[in-house]
Each structure stands twice: as structure tokens, then as C-alpha cells.
Amino acid sequence: MLRREFPELINVPELDEAITWARDTLCDSEDSRSRALVVSLLGRAITLAGQEPLSDAVLSNVTEALLGLAGQHEFLFSQDLHTPLQDLAEALGREAQTRRSLAELLITRASAEQFLALHVGRVIGSLLPSADALYWMEHWDLLSAADEQVSRLAVAFPPPEERTVLERAQAARASHPTLRAATAFWDNPPAESPWEREHRELREAERRQNTYDETALRAALDAVLTTAPDQLRSAWAGCQRAAPHSRRFPRQLGRLMACCSNRGAVPAVGRHPAGRPPLAGRPACAAFGLALDCREPGALRRHRLSHRPRTHGARPGR
């Protein structure tokens, strides 16, 4: 309750004092006060930046507080910090200018170990989103004093797909040799590992299997029409494999399945049950097969209407 309500009581006039307390708490490894409350205060500071830009002193204290949290990385994985860290990430997502200013301070001050701890602890992902990669490329000079292992995380993203963005990124890479070195994987994509190749081939095979193939469906229907009665179920399974997710003829295919299941019991011409007309000597599944022409979705309806039984004793004109 305190963690939820207390930060909301903090406004811009009290922010400097509150963030100073948060910094001191996180930088003191022996202080056992609520880390969840402290992280909530950091999120509150980022939120208030939307009302009034944070002063350099507050930004510096927020940075030091995060570095103090990195030194106690075991708290980053505690259940108590899950919601406060999520709130902090959402606040950083809304305030791009504050996010970039805080990221610059953190990149230039943090050691590789501290930065890695925050990265694994779900903090850096919200500070260095892929949407900011182009910004850091075009402002690479701001990170020139940072540890190389840390600064490259700001641009550790695949090449953008949008042409204009890619052209700007390539121009920035051409202007900074260190940036080009940090994004060398753009020019030399890593070789596909056997594990990655195996999974890619499995995905492609599954995609092919789930893709509608009219030719395969026609061949499977032909097999249904020509197979022996005791092989109908396996032949019908071929139809389902040929169109596993097809929604074009769900009713027609369902009727065909029902008809194929009873093919051996279809009565011959002249011995049909009352109210069910003969099919002119054709097997029931063949009649339905003609109705399943993929080029004529209305064929089944026309077939059903043409074979509708006459109602004896109907009134004239009806």
C-alpha cells in the first residue's frame, strides 16, 4: 500500500529530496529499507519529467541510484521489484528526451559489469529501445568517452528495414569508424549455426504444410473419388492435410467426409430410402466431389437444389 500511494504524493517541489533519499538508500548496501518503494520513486521522477524537465541534479541522482541498484543485482530478480520495474519501463517509454538523457549519463558512468547487471535485470531494455538506435548513431560523439562494451549496446540492433532510416544510419556509420566497428555485424552477418538452420527448416516445413495448395487438394479429392471403400478414411485424411486451415468450403468438406464415411452403405438405384432421391447410379461421394470444384464455390448449392426431392401433395403455385 505504501509503495503504491506514497510516490503519487511526490510532486516537482519534493522531487529533489525524494530522489536524493532514493539514491542514498540504493547506494547503501546495508540499508534494508524497501527497494520497491525506492524504484517506484524513480518511476515517479520520470513521470514528472512530462510536466517539467528534470534538473541535472535529479538526473544525476537517478543515475547514481540505478548504479547502486546494479551493485545489489540480486534485488533485480526479486518478485517485489517486478511491478516497480515495469512501471519504470513504462515511464521511460513515454518520456523519450528524459530517457535519452538518463541513458547517456548511465552509459558514460557505468562499468561493463554494472551495465550488464542492469541489462539482465530488465532495466536497460527500457533505456535503450530499438527506436533510439538511430538517435545514438547520429549522436555517437556523446558516447565517445564510454566503455566500448557498454556503448555498443545502444546500437546492437539489426539494420532498419525502412530505406530512409537505413540511409541515415549508413551515413552515420561512415562518419564514425568506432560506430562502424560496433555495428560490423551489419556488413558480415553471423553464419547460421546448425541449431538455427534446423529450426529454420522446421519452421519452413510447417509453413508449407499449413499453406493452402489447390493442386494438392484436387489430387487428394481425386484419391477420395477413386479409392476403395475400406481406404476412404485414410484418403480423407489426405484432404485434411492438403487444406488444414482452409475456410473456403468447411461445410462442403464436412458433407464430403460424412458421405465418404458411409460410402459402402449408400443404397443402389431403386432402393433408396423414402425422401432421398437416387443419384443416377453415381456413388454418393462422386456426386459431392463434382460439387467441390474449387473454381465454383456455389457448385454444392446448385447440386443440392437440383437434387431436392419433390414434396408430394404440395399446393399448386407453391
Oligomer: single chain
Question: Strand-and-helix sequence, N→C?
Answer: HHHHHHHHHHHHHHHHHH
Distance between the termini: 75 Å
**What is the helix tally?**
18
Give the helix level as a range of percent.
55-70%
What is the residue-averaged pLDDT?
Answer: 75
Structural class, from helix and strand content? mainly alpha
Question: How many E strands?
Answer: 0
How large is the share of residues in beta strands? under 5%
List unreliable stretches of 5+ residues: 263-305
**Shape assignment:** elongated
**Largest beta-sheet details:** none
Radius of gyration: 34 Å
Describe the protein's architecture and organization.
The chain is elongated and about 85 Å long. The chain has 318 residues and is mostly helical. The chain starts with a helix and ends in a 12-residue tail after the last helix. Helix 14 (214-226) runs antiparallel to helix 15 and helix 17 crosses helix 18 (299-306). The chain is built from 18 helices and no strands. 28% of the residues are buried.
